[in-house]
């Protein structure tokens, strides 16, 4: 409470709802009063004539009880509100000093918040409407043994064939072991250090223990153990972790369990920090034709579809649906058996369709959304009009099934012949990726251009392109009979960008600098290895240029 002189002449203070009274501002005290309204606090300076009014001690106490966390103001915290001021009989300076002393005690009590529970931020509070996706789990307990609830498989004790109490026991054991390791490390640090420091007795004993535990590892499961593992798999399927006992040594299994718990703990910390949220819009699997595919990355499907764990797709028109019933009804009515657009290549059961993003916008958008589930760096989803899509299919008696695709700009300023390329997961490691790459360079040859893929490439895409460039260069060098070779000539004949050619030659250690000249070394060992692989592979997955029926679009 601050005492001072007021320069104003008069003010009005509401003494009661029915009557307003004018009071003098001479020789008055200034009281900072927080106004409580909708849980928001704002300071109010009220000039109170102490000759006609005083603040009731009882009301001060009630105000402090109602709000234990008043806001800070320049003169301190006031534990009462505007409604707590009572205009009554006069008071003298001694009573004012007593009230000020009691008020300071109330402030000190209000500042002591140790008895109050810590308020959690929004992302720190569990959503109790969510449940663990593991069948039969009540979401109680956590794999780390440090949390009361969980909502993901990574933290589910039941999925890991454990109970909540077992997880807590393992957590306490890990804590004790961590304390012992910390203590032993401190003891080792206190020892004198030398350049060739011998292992301590503790380290030697631990090494012998690990060796003994790994020596006891079973080479194979016995009959009873195999039956137990098979029964567990048949009973629970993919909803439970396979039984890991007796597969490896107890020591290695315990290390694996510790790594699982640590990873789960890290994920939980990310969730509490708001970086990972429960039920994030991540489609886990898609039903695509006769395959059920696990997704790799997030794709920006509409909200009502993105929150589903499983998405159902028509493999011909790429329409996405919510349930198996909707998919079955759609397949009964869908008349599509191949992609839209023009079929520009066919050899055997392999076909390639050219689809214009402007003419078939919905199909191309669905294709991009599907591709984003398996590509990390893809950014094109809905703006598909400036692109052409080349879709490779494999035909059977039911239709042309999607194998993969690549897209390219209709007018590329940097002569990119591929903007995005994807091979469906069920067709990977079968040679289709190189066929798509080879087909993109075949189109560049017809256009009489030199092409290169748009960067950045995904990890699998970079591996595929480097393998293709290596194969192209070795084939060219195997057929080359001259003594002088030019990077420009290789580029014009293969349609590969000179930068890609140089980087490939450097990776093969075939490009050297000697006496001011760059030399290309013809390494016969690499060529012989390539020829052996080509003979073993056969000509099953190759592109035949004579099967292409295509002319470059106008304006390109």
Automatic annotation (TrEMBL):
Catalyzed reactions per annotation: L-lysyl-[protein] + acetyl-CoA = N(6)-acetyl-L-lysyl-[protein] + CoA + H(+)
First-listed, main subcellular location of the protein, grouped into a coarse class: nucleus
Domain of life: Eukaryota
Family: Belongs to the MYST (SAS/MOZ) family.
Protein's GO biological process: DNA repair; DNA replication; positive regulation of hematopoietic stem cell proliferation; positive regulation of nucleobase-containing compound metabolic process; regulation of transcription by RNA polymerase II; transcription initiation-coupled chromatin remodeling
Biased composition (Basic and acidic residues): 60-70, 167-192, 202-213, 223-243
InterPro entries, sorted: Acyl_CoA_acyltransferase (IPR016181), HAT_MYST-type (IPR002717), MYST_HAT (IPR050603), WH-like_DNA-bd_sf (IPR036388), Zf-MYST (IPR040706), Znf_C2H2C (IPR002515), Znf_C2H2C_sf (IPR036060)
Transmembrane region(s): none
EC number: 2.3.1.48
Subcellular location: Chromosome, Centromere; Cytoplasm, Cytosol; Nucleus
Domain MYST-type HAT residues, every copy: 278-552
Signal sequence interval, chain numbering: none
Keyword Lipid metabolism tagged: no
Name by which UniProt lists this protein: Histone acetyltransferase
Top-tier EC class: transferase
GO molecular function, one term: transcription coregulator activity
Entry's Gene Ontology cellular component terms: chromosome, centromeric region; cytosol; histone H3-K14 acetyltransferase complex
Regions of compositional bias (Low complexity) in chain numbering: 79-91
Keywords of the record: Acetylation, Acyltransferase, Centromere, Chromatin regulator, Cytoplasm, DNA damage, DNA repair, DNA replication, Isopeptide bond, Metal-binding, Nucleus, Phosphoprotein, Transcription, Transcription regulation, Transferase, Ubl conjugation, Zinc, Zinc-finger
Region of interest: Disordered: 60-96, 167-243, 536-556
UniProt-listed Pfam families: MOZ_SAS, zf-C2HC, zf-MYST
Active site (catalytic residues): 454
């Amino acid at each position: 409470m601050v005492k001072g002189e007021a320069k104003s002449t008069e003010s009005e203070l509401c003494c009661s709802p029915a009557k307003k009274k004018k009071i003098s501002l001479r020789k008055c005290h200034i009281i900072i009063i927080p106004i409580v309204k909708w849980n928001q606090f704002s300071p109010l300076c009220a000039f109170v004539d102490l000759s006609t009014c005083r603040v009731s001690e009882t009301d001060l106490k009630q105000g402090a009880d109602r709000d234990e966390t008043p806001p800070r103001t320049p003169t301190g915290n006031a534990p009462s509100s505007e409604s707590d001021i009572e205009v009554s009989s006069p008071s003298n300076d001694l009573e004012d000093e007593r009230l000020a002393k009691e008020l300071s005690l109330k402030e000190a009590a209000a500042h002591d918040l140790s008895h109050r529970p810590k308020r959690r931020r929004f992302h720190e509070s569990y959503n109790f409407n969510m449940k663990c996706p593991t069948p039969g789990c009540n979401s109680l307990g956590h794999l780390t043994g440090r949390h009361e609830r969980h909502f993901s498989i990574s933290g589910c004790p039941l999925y890991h064939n454990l109970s909540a109490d077992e997880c807590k026991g393992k957590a306490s054991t890990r804590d004790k072991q961590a304390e012992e390791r910390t203590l032993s490390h401190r003891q080792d640090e206190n020892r004198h250090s030398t350049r060739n420091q011998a292992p301590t007795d503790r380290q030697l004993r631990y090494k012998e223990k690990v060796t003994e535990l790994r020596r006891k590892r079973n080479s194979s499961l016995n009959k009873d153990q195999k039956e137990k593992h098979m029964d567990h798999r048949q009973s629970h399927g993919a909803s439970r972790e396979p039984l890991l006992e007796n597969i490896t040594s107890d020591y290695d299994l315990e290390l694996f369990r510790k790594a699982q718990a640590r990873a789960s703990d890290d994920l939980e910390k990310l969730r509490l920090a708001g970086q990972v949220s429960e039920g994030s819009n991540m489609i886990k699997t898609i039903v695509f034709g006769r395959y059920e595919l696990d997704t790799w990355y997030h794709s920006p499907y509409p909200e009502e579809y993105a929150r589903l764990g499983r998405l159902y797709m028509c493999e011909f028109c790429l329409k996405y649906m919510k349930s198996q019933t909707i998919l079955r009804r759609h397949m009964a009515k869908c008349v599509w058996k191949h992609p839209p657009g023009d079929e520009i290549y066919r050899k055997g059961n392999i076909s390639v369709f050219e689809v214009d993003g402007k003419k078939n916008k919905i199909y191309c958008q669905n294709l991009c959304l599907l591709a984003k589930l398996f590509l990390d760096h893809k950014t094109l989803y809905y703006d598909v009009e400036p692109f052409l899509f080349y879709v490779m299919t494999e035909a059977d008696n039911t239709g042309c099934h999607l194998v993969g695709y690549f897209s390219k700009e209709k007018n590329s300023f940097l002569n990119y012949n591929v903007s995005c390329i994807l091979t469906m997961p069920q067709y990977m490691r079968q040679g289709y990726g190189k066929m798509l790459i080879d087909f993109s360079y075949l189109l560049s040859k017809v256009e009489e251009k030199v092409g290169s893929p748009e960067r950045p490439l995904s990890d699998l895409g970079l591996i595929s392109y480097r393998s293709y460039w290596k194969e192209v260069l070795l084939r060219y060098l195997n057929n080359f009979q001259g003594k002088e070779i030019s990077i420009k000539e290789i580029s014009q004949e293969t349609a590969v960008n000179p930068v890609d050619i140089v980087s490939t030659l450097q990776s093969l250690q075939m490009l050297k600098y000697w006496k001011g000249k760059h030399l290309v070394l013809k390494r016969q060992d690499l060529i012989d290895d390539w020829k052996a692989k080509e003979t073993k592979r056969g000509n099953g997955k190759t592109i035949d240029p004579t099967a292409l029926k295509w002319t470059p679009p106008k304006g390109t």
